Predict the 3D structure of the following.
Amino acid sequence: MDKSQERLIIDRFEGDDALLEEESGVMRRVSRASLPLGAREGDCLLKQDGRLYPDPNRTLQRREQAAKRLEKLLKKRK
């Protein structure tokens, strides 16, 4: 990853704001209007040159990992 790029994840929405989580775990509040069109909770973003861009490959990867963890947990409960 280029040093000028920053990875963020949309944690949640609060009114007209979005709370983004940095890789370090620090939370950042931004205007919901500054997000890419169609962005939703859990989406991964790249910040480059002051703009936010979707990172669909990373989003898919994280969602697949979460689904596998959930499946593993549910199997343990049986």
Summary: The helical segments are 56-76. The mean pLDDT is 92. The first strand starts at residue 5 and ends at 14. Residues 56-76 form the longest helix (21 residues).
